[in-house]
Design brief:
homodimer, about 350 residues, alpha/beta, 2 domains, five-stranded mixed β-barrel, four-stranded mixed beta sheet, 11 helices
């Protein structure tokens, strides 16, 4: 049976003040009934049995994640002493998997993305798993719907397999986040897919690639895993580079395959993205909590524990929490980070 | 020594959700450090000794008012069984005053107005008190600063006394709330003053006018005061007309005098009025509570118990309370009443 590696290290600061340093995005419910990390794990069933699911996260999120996923073996939540980007996080999980079944494949998933059509994702994953045994790595790509400048792209080469309504392509190259004109060009060609951060490797293949392209990380983590203590891992992390798996490995190996698939993939990166995913009333407002409105439109109004009354407001985001109230124009959703920077500067740590 | 009658019957619903049915505007601090009804009483000292100050209010506000003014004799807070407009409220106080000193004068003040220059108000009151013995009633008028359509106006006649920098005029007529064009005309002539709702009568003169112009009220309240029970007062109130003192009496008596005076009088009728009275930062924002902003301007941000973060918002009002959060465009401040109507309609009584 294949393994899943769920990347749950980020805090999701643009969803502040719901997401906090100690209550990160992956523990938020977002559009779901339960925390999104739990949704992510459950939708991988039954392809990836629970004891084959690993979650890699920051030390301070490990216990909260275990408590929202009590059916997951606690040792499957892997604590990183601190963040060292995706190459280290995936490597850590790959060592654990290889120690059990080095010939087995593992699929990597972000913990905090919405998938509107989980059945279609499952179909794409099932299509990709056997391919990962025959090729170096399979990247699940998402056909772009708009010229997004916040994602990396994959340029498709020629088709190499066609089955069950899906086609695998060779990958010509990975490209970093493009500018708008470039992204518009990509969108028109139809040959560029969004890099969703979901990909499948055979464990041994990944570790070989790691040894070749990121030898310090390979060595440091091999040693730390052999010793097996938290201290050893902490020392190893202090010594390894902060680099993404895309940049360090994916872009440097040959025989990379992409499987474009449409499954309603949404990166709920900020409040505007969440607004767009939520159901709206006829005036385009999305709510959590009781509400009363007069000429309010296009607004996200989240006040789960009180009545929210809105008059005459347009395209606004309001997020009420017990100690922080955020009010902003919806098109400024990216700027939540700047507010956090301001709070850090003035030492307002308690609300971060 | 003269008496003061403070009118504290209204709820101030346009300041919802801070003001509530059970926590009315006169108990709000507004721009002050203490509830505005207490500020109103204290600024009348020493001209009106505390045991000469009467507060007329709704039964459910009587005890809360007593508790914010512990130094006031409790019996000086007069409970109305329910609201019957200003004629009944003032009559009730006038009967109590006449029972003590019928020849003495009393001055009527609203409980919930801001006075930026209390010394100037005191000067105008001191100027008016002796005039009230020589004339039927003295109305303290406020020179209009803009063509307000929400107030009544007094048209001045000829000057009748000039002393200490103030002039008393005969009153030609009272006019009800005008339309904008009429109000603009009034502003240009310089002969029209705002009717501030502050006026001075001799107790006996008022009761004589009441007997003549509003005989049912005179009779019903005389009887109720003679019996002296709450039940008697309740029966009396059920029988008397709901009418303002301006319409029922002021506009019908002769020898009315007006004293125009500028003392920074502000009717804090709604959130926009409060916004204009509060201190602003350089971007025109007014705050209560800690805050962090990015490109926010012209906004009133009241969240006394939490951090408020505002990004890109303009001319907004945000009022956070434990059970209700109001968010509205500042120029829609009048429409808070419509929200309350909606809540009443759907039976959401708990938050009114």
């Amino acid at each position: 049976m294949p393994y899943a590696v769920i990347m749950a290290g980020g805090a999701g600061t643009r969803l502040w003040p719901a997401a906090r340093r100690d209550n990160p995005k992956q523990l938020q419910r977002l559009i779901y009934e339960e925390p999104i990390v739990a949704v992510t794990v459950r939708r991988l069933q039954p392809t990836f049995p629970l004891d084959h699911c690993y979650i890699v996260t920051a030390a301070r999120y490990a216990d909260p994640i275990r408590s929202v996923l009590p059916e997951l073996p606690p040792e499957n939540v892997i604590s990183e002493p601190f963040g060292r980007n995706t190459a280290a996080a995936i490597a850590l999980a790959a060592f654990r998997i290889a120690a059990r079944e080095p010939e087995e494949v593992f699929a990597v998933f972000p913990a905090d993305h919405v998938v509107l059509h989980p059945d279609k994702l499952q179909h794409a994953v099932n299509f990709s798993l056997p391919l990962a045994r025959a090729h170096t790595v399979v990247d699940i790509g998402v056909p772009p719907t708009h010229p997004e400048t916040g994602y990396g792209y994959i340029e498709l080469g020629k088709p190499i397999e066609d089955r069950d309504g899906l086609t695998a392509y060779s990958v010509r190259r990975f490209v970093e986040k493009p500018d708008l004109a470039t992204a518009q060009g990509y969108l028109q060609t139809g040959h560029y897919m969004w890099n969703s951060g979901m990909f499948v490797w055979q464990a041994a293949t990944f570790l070989n690639a790691l040894r070749e392209h990121l030898p310090e990380t390979f060595r440091a983590l091999t040693d730390a895993e052999a010793i097996g203590t938290e201290d050893a891992l902490q020392s190893a992390y202090a010594a390894i580079p902060d680099i993404s798996v895309d940049y360090a490995i994916m872009e440097r190996v040959s025989d990379v395959v992409a499987v474009p698939a449409e499954f309603g993939w949404r990166d709920v990166g900020d409040w505007n993205a969440l607004y767009e995913l939520m159901p709206h009333d006829e005036a385009g407002n999305a709510y959590e909590g009781t509400h009363v409105t007069l000429d309010a439109s296009g607004s996200l109004l989240l006040a789960p524990n009180k009545l929210i009354a809105a008059i005459g407001v347009e395209d606004l985001v309001v997020v009420d929490t017990p100690d922080v109230l955020l009010v902003m124009r919806r098109d400024r959703a990216q700027d939540v980070k700047k507010i956090l920077d301001k709070l850090k500067e003035r030492g307002d740590d308690a609300v971060l």
